[in-house]
Specification:
Length: about 290
């Protein structure tokens, strides 16, 4: 009877040690995971480039964002009919070019024939610039060729499938951006993010959430693969930001263009802000 009791005690001790070690390892993993994102400053994320000043997702808008001291260039990606990655927000080219049709139905050559800048002059005549006329939709490779390792990139995968993810990671590797810690990846697709996390667990990932899902999201589950969340700023307050951060996640707010909103979010402890006006945010942070 004594032997049975002692044996049971030994088994219990071993189980406790294993559980304790697992908890410690998980805590260490979380600390390491959190450190994937900068934590000593509020990130100034240029939403589609300096899109309040120039045609969104053009090389001009990205260059202007750099000059306005943005920390990250935010890039939305779609894949063309011939499997090229291009920077454009909408799945349809109608809003930001003089063309029609879906990006996925057009080849890169066909997209390159479109004018992606004149619409901005027409929509915002007070900001019109002849240099915007005729600018084209850039490929991801063209962006990296121009800005290289001197810039940091915050990239959203739009409607990603396995083919798009593989092509995207291939381009990142080609330009040595994965090992250089120059990229944050975001998506509304949990499947895409978990896919990337399984292959490269040191890339900081951001789970985007729509306004309707902000309050009901399982942030502990998101913490298993992402380093942060991107949320509509209208859904946030100080207590909610602190609650999410308490789950080990950074909180990045989109899309914030008014100075008073920026100041309020910063007072609440936000980790990053997407804005069409990186110059305004830079002034607030200064």
């Amino acid at each position: 009877m004594k032997k049975t009791w002692r044996w049971g005690l030994c088994v219990l001790l071993v189980i406790c040690l294993v559980i304790g070690a697992s908890v410690i390892l998980e805590r260490e993993k979380q600390v390491s995971f959190v450190s994937l994102l900068p934590s000593d400053k509020v990130l100034n994320i240029a939403h589609r480039g300096a899109s309040g000043h120039a045609p969104e997702h053009t090389l001009i808008a990205y260059d202007l964002a750099e000059k306005m001291n943005a920390d990250y260039l935010e890039i939305d990606l779609h894949m063309t009919a011939d499997h090229q990655l291009v920077a454009i927000h909408d799945e349809d080219v109608g809003r930001t070019t003089n063309g029609v049709g879906f990006v996925s139905d057009l080849t890169l050559a066909e997209l390159k024939e479109l004018d992606a800048g004149t619409w901005f002059n027409q929509a915002y005549p007070e900001l019109a610039n002849p240099d915007f006329i005729g600018v084209t939709i850039p490929t991801l490779a063209e962006i990296f060729e121009l800005f290289g390792l001197d810039s940091d990139y915050y990239i959203e995968l739009k409607d990603p499938d396995d083919e798009m993810i593989d092509a995207f990671l291939t381009v990142l590797n080609k330009y040595d951006l994965l090992e250089a810690d120059k990229v944050i990846i975001q998506s509304f697709s949990q499947k895409a993010l978990t896919n990337i996390h399984a292959q490269y667990d040191e890339i900081p990932l951001i789970q985007l959430l729509s306004k309707s899902k902000t309050k009901s999201a399982n942030y502990k589950k998101i913490r298993q693969y992402a380093a942060g969340v991107g949320l509509p700023f209208q859904t946030l307050d100080k207590a909610f930001i602190e609650k999410i951060q308490g789950n080990g996640l950074h909180v990045h707010a989109f899309t914030v263009n008014e100075t008073e909103d920026m100041e309020r979010l910063i007072d609440w402890g936000i980790d990053g802000i997407f804005t069409n006006y990186p110059d305004r945010l830079a002034d607030v942070l200064w």
